Amino acid sequence: MSDLQEIAKLVRYYILTCTTKAGSGHPTSSLSATDLMTELYFNRLRLDFDRIIFSKGHASPLFFSLYTAAGLLPEKELYTLRQFGSVVEGHPTPKFKYAEAASGSLGQGLSVGLGMALNGKYLDRLPYFTYVLMGDSEMAEGSVWEAINLAGHYKLDNLVGIIDVNRLGQANPTMLGWDTETYSKRVQSFGWETAVIEGHNFSEITRAFDQAGKVKNKPLMIIAKTIKGKGVSFLEDKEGWHGKALNQADYQKALKELGTINFKLKCFIKKQN
Amino acid sequence: MLYQKAELVPTRLAYGQALAELGTKYPKLVALDAEVKNSTYAELFAKKFPERFFEMYISEQNMIGAGLGLSKCDKIPFVSTFAAFLTRAYDQIRMASYSAPNLKICGSHAGVSIGEDGSSQMGLEDMAMMRALPGSTVLYPCDAVSTFKLVEQMVKHKGLDYLRTSRPATAVIYDNSEEFPLGGSKILRQSPFDKVTVVTAGITVFEALKASDELGNVRVIDAYSVKPIDKAGLIKAGKATNGKIMVVEDHRVEGGLGSAVLEAVAQEGFKVYQLGVTKIPGSGKMAELLKWEEIDAEAIGKMVKSLIK
User: Fold this and answer.
1) How many CB atoms within 10 Å of residue B303?
2) pLDDT confidence of A1, banded at 50, 70, 90?
3) In terms of CA atoms, which chain B residue is nearest residue A141?
């Protein structure tokens, strides 16, 4: 098992544990994007340099767990998730120092990322990347397409969108399901480069992120086919599990499936060189 | 920028002039507009600082988000469009208010005073919308001097700030040396014999002045800072005028300046009377529309008379 896979397992452990302790939250929407974000955080992101927006704010258990894995959020604090007064809230807000904008009202993160990318390319002229994680359900929001349109127009090759295509929304399957090719065609038509991948295959994920900035004047959209609840067999691709935490019995079952977790893993987010 | 007294300058033009002039002094100032920059006058900044202006085309929701993103990169973004069209970006503005923003929003073409273009273009709910957000500032200047000064206040102030501008040209009434602190107000007419205080802002300041000059003994306050509102000033004026306050605004009566005044003086036992937009407006000349909505000098005079008889 590669280091990234080991880290992803640790992150999944934190996601399940913090939501079960909280008694609510969105573990399954977090698990689908875990491998994508593990690659991003532990193989790409330069701390306090690159920008990251979780447009799918309900994946906050994943968001916070990544910082716990990186040693930037003590485990004890992670387990105050959703409690009154905690900086780790149900959806991220800037009370948590690494959340730059509040998210959770879907379809807005890419616009915020657009502003950051405009700054990087045209104002400060700094070589940082802006990454925006989106859910596939929020692709139904018109504002996402406004941002896609403008990012293409402004040729923002420093902007990387990631669509976590886990097929399932809150109440229903999405309109496109796992039809990642259709997402790709639509996004490409706005002047973007796209990478259609299997979102749990690390070599594909790595290759996709490698494309960032490679095509001049085009933003990159990584369109990743994922499985909601990935890593826990009885949650995987199941309807009826959106926004639900596991009870103790299910949590113990899930931990057994994850297997041995290496808590001594050395993982950290790079600083800018 | 220096203005002459009585010179006719739309506040939206003064907004653009302020951005263009302040852009030199404040290099972090950037501007975005939703493809109406020749109406909001953001184009004056765009022409002078093309590298610091971003045309967002007609995507208001996206413009607010992008503005927030720029503010997170230590810029001071001014985003502008018609006040009416900001309503469709309210969710983005609401989320910005939870994001520790330093975002400056200008809504132009406020009120029925825009005239001929009709109801779809009239911002009539914008102050209610912006006032309701945590930590927001809402400013509504009536002339070029106050607009210019308030834009600079917005540059210096850190937060979510909203400026409401008007389409028609209005007369400059303030000296260029006048200061406009956030939370302040200006007494434009007063005498020891005042029987009622008329609190107003923006385009209807001129209607209130006309009514006051015709009737006499009517105190007129320009409440250019709608939020925070000058509570102490309002209470003082109310006490001086038998606890009678009239509010006049080119905005719906729900949630705007009238509501702000009512909230500020509610504990004082004053009687507060509101004139604002209550009907569905349409096309027409500004004077016809102010008359139709009963927010012109004639309607103000009529109400004042009924209050002091």
Assistant:
1) 19
2) low
3) B61
Centre a 10 Å sphere on the Cβ of residue B91 and count the other Cβ atoms it contains: 17
Interface A-B, measured as beta-carbon pairs within 8 A, has a size of 104
Chain B contact for A149, CB < 8 A? yes
Q: For residues A33 and A59, is the Cβ–Cβ distance under 8 A?
A: yes
The rounded distance, in Å, linking the Cα atoms of B247 and B239 is: 15
Q: Whole-angstrom Cα distance, residue B266 to residue B112?
A: 28
Mean pLDDT of chain B: 98
Task: Render pLDDT for A87-111 as a digit per residue (tens, 0 to 9).
Answer: 999 999 999 999 999 999 999 999 9
Burial bucket for residue B193 (CB in 10 Å: 0-12, 13-18, 19+): exposed
The ipTM value here is 0.96
pTM for the model stands at 0.97
Asked whether B222 and B149 are in contact (CB, 8 A), the reply is: no
Which residues of B fall within a CB distance of 8 Å from A122?
51, 54
Quick one: which of B164, B229, B161, B236 has its CA closest to B194? Answer: B236
Q: Where are the alpha helices (DSSP H) in chain B?
A: 11-25, 37-40, 43-48, 60-71, 83-86, 90-97, 126-131, 144-156, 205-215, 231-240, 257-265, 286-292, 297-308
Distance, CA of B56 to CA of A234 (rounded, Å): 45
Q: Mind listing the pLDDT tens digit for each residue in B153-207?
A: 999 999 999 999 999 999 999 999 999 999 999 999 999 999 999 999 999 999 9
Q: Is B62 on the interface with A (CB under 8 A)?
A: yes
CA dihedral A64, A65, A67, A72 (to 10 degrees): 100
